[in-house]
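Researcher: We plan to redesign the surface later, but first we want a full-length starting point. Tokens attached.
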């Protein structure tokens, strides 16, 4: 089927909730994707921080192949080994509590919101401007962006959005607060790092009010910043984290991972999802977690991130670069080519523009030196216009 035919059928048959580029991908391997005409692309977006180990990582593929021929689904009425092993490993790798599985990032945040409200009935949820926590009603209510929320009002009550400052957080968090939900690094709105001071302040305010502090590590977790979890680069320990995206090595799985304090808030019947933590996605996630936990890979992320950050700053029109590890954004001056997105596509480099002057890069954690340099050359050509 040609791309034109595909686009016509898509237009007639698929609800138009995505603005797509005019490209069809048919194959992926490592940092590369191939379109239907055989053109090769360098993927430095990783399906928005999902294929962080590269496309079709052999360890993930092998784990899925083995599991898919053995057992695909049982429901959560029964035990299956991959999910239990994954929960144990996730807990040991982070907060030492327990894990609730789901199928996506939004659902992981839904679980966090429900859990925190059960722990403190009727309590408020505090979030900060610039956050993105997902599109389902609870997650959307925690995503203070007018364009995303307004068409879907009324939202879930009891959500407060404040500026990401210590003063605003102090004013918002009180004895009625059940949950403070923060992305340590805000991804969708253009890679904005919340300062360690702000996270520390949120921790103190939550301790004083009895609110749960949950970090949304859906985009910044799973090795993206050069430690398995982003919070490890601070001295702040949240009460829980949410994970998804790269967790499944390319397959859909999400998780709410608690510390001991919140581990036993849910009891049977409180929450659930038919597909959650199924054997195939859990096997994929176990393989992805094993590969990502490797100290040498995480050190490589820090080194590659420092290299890219320095070199991106030397490109034409780039006025600043921000981010941690391999979660990076370049801010461009206003004379950067308006057709940049098209130029990047012509250069066959996949990155994305989170705003008119912001380019976000989420390269594979294991991208080679050659691929890093290649991405810079392609970006330089696209920016030169
Ligand atoms: N939280 C963060 C930080 C995200 O970046 C995203 C997705 O971009 C989500 C939540 C929602 O995840 P999902 O699209 O899997 O529902």
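Model: Full-length starting sequence:
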């Amino acid at each position: 089927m040609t791309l034109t035919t595909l686009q016509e059928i898509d237009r007639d048959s698929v609800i138009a909730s995505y603005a797509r580029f005019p490209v069809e991908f048919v194959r992926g391997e490592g940092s590369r994707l191939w379109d239907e005409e055989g053109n090769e692309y360098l993927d430095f977006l990783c399906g928005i921080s999902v294929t962080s180990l590269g496309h079709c990582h052999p360890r993930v593929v092998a784990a899925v192949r083995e599991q898919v021929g053995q057992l695909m689904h049982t429901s959560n009425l029964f035990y299956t080994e991959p999910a239990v092993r994954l929960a144990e490993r996730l807990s040991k790798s982070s907060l030492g509590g327990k894990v609730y599985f789901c199928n996506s990032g939004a659902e992981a945040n839904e679980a966090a919101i429900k859990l925190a409200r059960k722990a403190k009935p009727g309590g408020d949820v505090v979030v900060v401007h610039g956050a993105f926590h997902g599109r389902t009603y609870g997650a959307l209510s925690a995503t203070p962006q007018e364009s995303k929320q307004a068409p879907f009002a009324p939202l879930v009550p009891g959500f407060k959005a404040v500026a990401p400052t210590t003063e605003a957080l102090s004013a918002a968090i009180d004895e009625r607060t059940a949950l403070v939900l923060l992305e340590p690094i805000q991804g969708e709105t253009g890679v904005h790092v919340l300062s360690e001071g702000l996270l520390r302040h949120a921790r103190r305010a939550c301790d004083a009010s009895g609110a749960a502090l949950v970090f949304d590590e859906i985009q910044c977790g799973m090795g993206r910043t050069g430690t398995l979890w982003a919070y490890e680069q601070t001295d702040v320990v949240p009460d829980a984290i949410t994970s998804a995206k790269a967790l499944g090595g390319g397959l859909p799985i999400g998780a709410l991972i608690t510390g001991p304090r919140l581990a036993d808030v849910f009891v049977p019947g409180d929450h659930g999802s038919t597909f959650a933590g199924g054997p195939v996605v859990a096997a994929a996630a176990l393989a992805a977690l094993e590969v990502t936990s490797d100290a040498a890979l995480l050190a490589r992320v820090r080194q590659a991130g420092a290299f890219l950050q320095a070199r991106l700053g030397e490109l034409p029109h780039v006025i600043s670069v921000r981010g941690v590890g391999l979660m990076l954004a370049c801010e461009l001056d206003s004379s950067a080519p308006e057709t940049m997105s098209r130029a990047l596509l012509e250069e066959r480099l996949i990155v994305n523009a989170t705003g008119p002057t912001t380019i976000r890069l989420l390269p594979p954690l294991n991208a080679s030196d050659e691929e890093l340099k290649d991405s810079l050359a392609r970006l330089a050509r696209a920016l030169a216009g």
